[in-house]
Specification:
Methane Monooxygenase Hydroxylase, Chain G, domain 1; about 65% helix
Length: about 120
């Protein structure tokens, strides 16, 4: 675990992860689709930039809100896809191994689902 992390270029401080580091050398589940995730995130970055420009240009409130909604849905779609990958890879692998790591992964996934439902 790293301490003293600094915010990245988005201004968000990375959360130290227990993550999907597998003792058998397996990679994170989402890495098979990394390029797709990066493309989707680049599009979302473009949407956020467009939102900023809309505010700068003093566009109509409802038009901005419509774009906020579209951006939110796009982020939710990425989150659901990542959660699915996590469940199919990290949680399944931990469940097969059993023990406290399995319990931890299930709890971690439940908390992630709860955060998504609240957002």
């Amino acid at each position: 675990m790293h301490h003293g992390r600094r915010p990245d270029c988005t201004g968000v401080t990375p959360v130290p992860r227990r993550g999907c580091a597998h003792t058998d050398g397996a990679a994170h589940g989402y890495l098979d689709h990394k390029a797709d995730y990066l493309k989707r995130l680049a599009r979302i970055e473009g949407q956020v930039g467009g939102l900023r420009r809309m505010v700068e240009d003093e566009r109509y409130c409802i038009d901005i809100l419509t774009q906020v909604s579209a951006t939110t849905k796009a982020l939710q779609s990425v989150a659901v896809a990542l959660l699915d990958e996590h469940l199919r890879h990290c949680v399944v692998r931990a469940a097969q191994a059993g023990g406290s790591e399995a319990d931890h992964k299930i709890q971690e996934a439940s908390e992630a689902i709860a955060r998504l439902v609240r957002s």
